[in-house]
Write a structure and sequence with these properties.
Blueprint: E1 3-4, H1 7-15, H2 20-23, E2 35-37, E3 43-45, E4 47-51, E5 57-64, E6 67-74, E7 77-84, E8 87-89, E9 99-114, E10 122-136, E11 142-150, E12 153-160, E13 169-174, E14 177-179, E15 185-188, E16 202-205, E17 216-219, E18 225-231, E19 239-243, E20 248-253, E21 262-264, E22 268-269, E23 272-278, H3 281-285, H4 289-292, E24 308-313, H5 315-318, H6 334-347, E25 352-354, H7 383-393, E26 397-402, H8 407-423, E27 428-432, E28 440-443, E29 449-452, H9 457-472, E30 476-480, H10 506-509, H11 518-521, H12 566-575, E31 580-582, H13 587-591, H14 594-602, E32 607-616, E33 620-627, E34 633-639, E35 644-649, E36 658-666, E37 679-687, E38 691-696, E39 701-708
Parallel strand pairs: 24-25, 24-31, 25-26, 26-27, 27-30
Antiparallel strand pairs: 1-2, 2-3, 4-5, 5-6, 6-7, 8-13, 9-10, 10-11, 11-12, 12-22, 12-23, 13-21, 14-20, 15-16, 15-17, 17-18, 18-23, 19-20, 28-29, 32-33, 33-34, 34-39, 35-38, 36-37, 36-39
Helix pairs in contact: 6-7, 8-9
């Protein structure tokens, strides 16, 4: 029978040489009364606690009849009630029963690191760490669980040690649970459905949630906000969350085509399971927890990547003015690309994206994954000529590789495709994986086709393979229909952006268009994971009302429209972060409104610091960012379908300095539905002592540039 150790027994054990000094380091939160002894050589810890550096967040771990459970408190409120931890395997006993905590190690770290590009240049990385050493009492198999407590949340992961019998490991279940109050308000999109991550967010009580993708964001009945996600997803399957009884969300890993969840070998670490925690919604946006749980930059100097804005032969296809294939009015021609390059050079943009240049786009290209050729172009596109012209005017070509979900066809050509682009001075490639969920095609060494999920282990490894190979050519990657972001841009900073949510193109199709609240939800959900290539900057907000280019090319559904005001399109460059921002509309639409276009020309994409100032999920957001390369500040404000008034203290501006504020805001009659083009452009002088008062129309926004007087 297990007996609690008294204080005198504890001293005697230490005197006798038991390794409790290592087990209980200085400043440990474990009490002697929390120890039990299972034999003469093994000590068992019943419970242990870890607090964040500021003491506001606490995770507790305990052993309950052979299962390891954890709970989390924050700001004196229960966030996570007792929740299971563990793994199950195909060939080995699982780490799910007969577990004991044999020892712990504690440490803490205080550091700062610099992003080569990002929302802020300097990231503070302070945490306290707890390493739990677990053992199965039946077979002595061992596993560690590592917790890190930050002032903005908790991260933990499983670490399976190298040991006999673990040379090959097949994971069949991850038991990780997150047991919330089921009355929590939840913003979520469904997982394992055909359209990957491209759904409108639902707002429901947690009790109504289905299987969901992460990040998933909750507001607890106490008012606290929590976002559940993962960090450093490498050689593992992406985690969705399955709704179980009560308020429990359980880890549900994307299955492989062979029915397993993960195949690997020990030693291995799982991705971090993350909980960003804040008193208010904007605290989630101001968190760096996901980045801090990733490994430092492995690429070294990446000065060859330049953040900036690009235009592209892209929106014209969505508006049905041009076609991707050569079986219509082909968009990707040498002549058209040069025209776009001239426009980009005139207005200071540093790239032109060209989609549809390579063979394979004719016909039903959604299903053309077997036939795409990534080195041969259509006859009307001369990549060498285009590249030479781009070099002449200072606007490089941005490459495009659409796979239609056939990763074997892409990987077979990847080296040659990257070499072609490198030889033509392409610095960024947009990749695409258009295929329904579960339809990613992979051909094995025997020529047999297998079909995978976009967030399964094979695709996790595929994306990293592409990113690493691209880095050798000094090329950056921006995948669409991607695997979700988990902060790996810190480790591989040529992974510069991605899609992974419902982007602007849905507003061109009318299926339905993205509603006004969509972009007031994204910063508190999808964007917590990392940059998004949302493609803002649409000036022609009613594309379905334009006349057709020719009779056989009708416009999209009459419901297709952009449900924002013009000023909100400008504000999206600030509220939706990406180091590469697309200037998505057609050149002619910008030429029709050059005063408003000036803001897009001016706004940077790389920041010294960023801070969310005000916001509620699905309602509104106010965010300030400082340019990394000047003393300018920028302010972005957006609202949902409700007109709103704001009072914004400008305390972020440098004290005792005056700024010229170049303001682009909704006019008095602005309304996304009835009058989206009403905009006021003005200049006023403001300082850090001022409070700026602002009114927005329905679906509206404002974008402000602050230029410091010298």
């Amino acid at each position: 029978m297990l007996q609690k150790i008294t204080y005198l027994t504890f001293l005697l054990l230490c005197f006798c040489g038991c390794s409790l000094n290592k087990m209980l380091p200085e400043n440990s939160d474990v009490n002697a009364s929390a120890l039990k002894q299972i034999d003469t050589t093994t000590q068992v810890i019943e419970s242990v606690h870890l607090k964040s550096p500021d003491g506001n967040i606490e995770v507790s771990v305990k052993n309950a009849d052979g299962q390891v459970l954890y709970n989390i408190k924050a700001f004196n409120q229960i966030i996570i009630k007792d929740s299971k931890l563990g793994l199950r395997f195909l060939e080995q006993h699982g780490f799910d029963k007969q577990l004991v905590i044999t020892s712990i190690e504690k440490s803490e770290s205080k550091s700062r690191w610099e992003q080569p590009w990002g929302e802020r240049r300097i990231v503070v990385n302070n945490y306290k760490e707890l390493l739990l050493k677990l053992e199965n009492t039946t077979n002595r198999e061992k596993m560690n669980i590592r917790f890190r407590a930050f002032n903005d949340g908790i991260g933990f992961r499983y670490e399976v040690l190298e040991q006999k019998g673990f040379e090959s490991v097949s994971i069949v279940d991850e038991l990780t649970n997150f047991n919330f109050d089921e009355n929590s308000t939840t913003w979520w999109i469904p997982a394992r459905e055909w359209n990957r991550y491209e759904y409108l967010y639902e707002k429901t009580p947690l009790s109504k949630v289905k299987m969901v993708h992460t990040p998933v964001t909750l507001q607890l009945p106490s008012g606290l906000h929590v976002s559940v996600h993962e960090a450093a997803l490498v050689n593992y399957s992406g985690m969705s969350l399955e709704k179980r009884r009560g308020g429990t969300l359980k880890a549900n890993l994307a299955p492989r085509s062979d029915g397993l969840l993960v195949k690997t070998q020990a030693p291995f670490n799982t991705p971090w399971r993350t909980l960003q925690i804040s008193k208010d919604a904007i605290g989630l946006i101001n968190s760096d927890l996901i980045l801090n749980l990733n490994e430092p930059n492995k690429l070294g100097d990446i000065s060859w990547f330049t953040p900036g804005k690009y235009i592209g032969i892209w929106w014209a296809m969505h508006m049905r003015e041009r076609t991707w294939g050569n079986d219509g009015i082909h968009g990707a021609t040498t002549e058209e690309t040069i025209r776009y390059m001239d426009f980009a050079a005139e207005h200071g943009f540093n790239g032109v994206l060209v989609e549809g240049w390579n063979l394979g786009w004719d016909g039903d290209w959604f299903h053309n994954g077997d036939v795409f050729n990534f080195t041969k172009s259509y006859p009307d596109f001369d990549i060498e000529k285009v590249s030479a012209y781009g070099k002449k005017v200072g606007v490089p070509l941005i490459g495009h590789h659409e796979t239609s979900g056939n990763i074997s066809n892409y990987e077979n050509q990847l080296d040659a495709a990257l070499e072609l682009y490198a030889n033509n001075e392409v610095k960024i490639i947009k990749t695409g994986y258009v295929a329904d969920a579960g339809d990613i095609k992979r051909i094995d060494e025997n020529g047999i086709a297998h079909y995978e999920f976009h967030d399964g282990q094979h695709m996790v490894n595929h994306h990293l393979k592409v990113v690493k190979k691209a880095a050798k050519h000094k090329i950056s990657i921006n995948p669409h229909e991607p695997v979700k972001d988990t902060g790996l841009r810190r480790t591989y900073p040529n992974w510069v952006s991605r899609e992974g949510a419902r982007g602007m193109e849905f507003s061109a199709w009318g299926v339905p268009p993205n509603p006004p609240e969509h972009t007031t939800i994204l910063p508190f959900t999808r964007l917590l994971s990392g940059p998004m290539d949302y493609t803002p900057g649409i000036f022609e907000l009613r594309p379905s009302e334009l006349p057709p280019v020719r009779e056989d090319m009708q416009r999209n559904d009459p419901k297709s429209r952009v449900e924002t005001t013009l000023a909100k399109q400008l504000a999206l460059y600030l509220t939706i972060y990406s180091p590469i921002q697309m200037v998505a509309d057609l050149p002619k639409h910008y030429q029709n409104n050059m005063p408003a276009f000036q803001f897009i020309k001016d706004v940077p994409t790389d920041w010294e610091q960023s801070m969310a100032l005000q916001g509620e999920i699905g309602d509104y957001l106010v965010i300030a960012r400082q340019d990394r390369n000047s003393s300018d500040w920028y302010l972005g404000v957006i609202t949902d379908e409700q007109a709103r008034s704001f009072s914004i203290p400008l305390h972020f501006l440098e004290k005792q300095k005056t700024y010229t504020a170049q303001i682009y805001r909704d006019g008095p009659n602005a309304d996304y539905d009835t009058n989206p083009y009403d905009i006021i452009i003005e200049e006023v002088n403001l300082s850090s002592q001022d409070t700026y008062n602002l009114s927005l129309g329905k679906g509206g926004g404002a974008a402000i540039r602050f230029i410091k007087h010298h």
